Amino acid sequence: MQEQKSLKVNSILNILKTISAIVFPLITFPYVSRVLQPENIGKVNFSGTYVGYFSLIASLGIATYAVRECAAVRDDRKNLSSVASEIFSINVCTTALAYILLAVSLVLFRRLDNYRTLIYIQSTTILFATWGADWINSAMEDFKYITIRSILFQCVSLILTFVLIKSPDDYLNYAIISVFSSSGANLSNVFYRRKYCNLRVTINMQVQKHFKPILLLFVMILAQTIFNSADITMLGLFCGDTEVGIYSTAYRIKSIIVQVVSSLAVVMMPRMSYYFAENDWDKINDMLKKVLSVMVTIGFPCIAGCVSLSDDIVRLVGGIEYADASMPLKILMLSFIIDIFGGNFLGNMICLPTKQEKVFMEACCVAAGVNVILNYLLIPVGGASAAAFTSGVAALVIFIWLLLKKDKRVRLDYILDVIKMPMVGAVAIVLFCSAIKVFKFGFWMSLVMKIGGSVVLYGSLQLGVRNPVVWDMLDLILKKIGRKGESR
Predict the structure, then answer these.
(1) What is this structure's pTM?
(2) Fewer C-beta neighbours within 10 Å, C or N terminus of the chain?
(3) Kind and range of the H or E element at 261?
């Protein structure tokens, strides 16, 4: 049996990787946007978005499916090599199809001629993602390698950005660096993954076995994409660019928090898939309780902080011109409470590992339909705030659907015990930030006091009420420091 990796360490590593993926663009984008000017930034973003549609065709739901299937057989190298090769071969075929469709589109749509070179460059991300097969490392829970490799490539990309981008004409360099940062790391997998399995292209792809669940996952991802993008599309149609800008700012801020909390699911799903394959329901329910505890312990203070500091955050990120994004941000963050329990927990942590992707797909499709209908009815009246509200309703639909369809062997009687300690801390953050507002400090002083005080207050309360997640993390950090001290 493969050595069991520490879920605590893996969780921290993947959160670090997610944070680095957020921080590096925040460092480079202000510089790049000023040097390249809006026109060239628009060219790069347009071509990247266009390539993204074909990337979706190439990837289908293969990565998520592959992590689950490979994690279930990871103790048997021969079986793992066989399953991984079958899935990899299917991915090669879908990638070839994506490139054929991309080539046809470039021939048919002559308006794309101005973007042709950029599209060629950015389309290499499709090839790198397929050939890298990073899902093998995720299935084997090798998040140390994934994190170190990703941060290393991002650091190199950061240096290249400031060295190679000096004028508006350097937008092709920016596209190449972006590809290198996001997908170049996959090239190292070609050699690294041999420690786990022998990956090859095979004619025996077991299409009947694999294609149906992959297709269901693709439909699920497509439905999620629709209701995530329908808000912005319909805002643009009904309300214009200003409301789109306001909502996009709020949504981008929320997405940062979502990425951090959702990164835990990436760590936990391989282990959950393994336990489900072993049919060990005691370990399954114990693990689910721990997963939800970590999600709410990290998620609740982030939600409370964003709601309390929404005016300050919007001003910091977008400026006073985006002040109206404060209310949509509050609504989006409150709806994220529902999403933690719905899509993140019941969906990613229960439905996908138990091979109930059809249930998750149905929930996402129904939610997408509800979202589009409510957008049509409410956005003309309420603008960006209405779009945020409909996203919350869609999240609620997914939660209710998955709750009704969940496996009866999955226990949820611990939910109140899990949420009460983080909830106390979240309420304390809201009260503390409200109290600071009374004193009318300057913007920066107020922001530092609110953030710093909230972190200290929340951490102290969780230690005081003996939240096991916080105590375990503290114990892990102290052990790491102790080991470094001994090594010296």
Answers:
(1) 0.72
(2) C
(3) helix 241-278
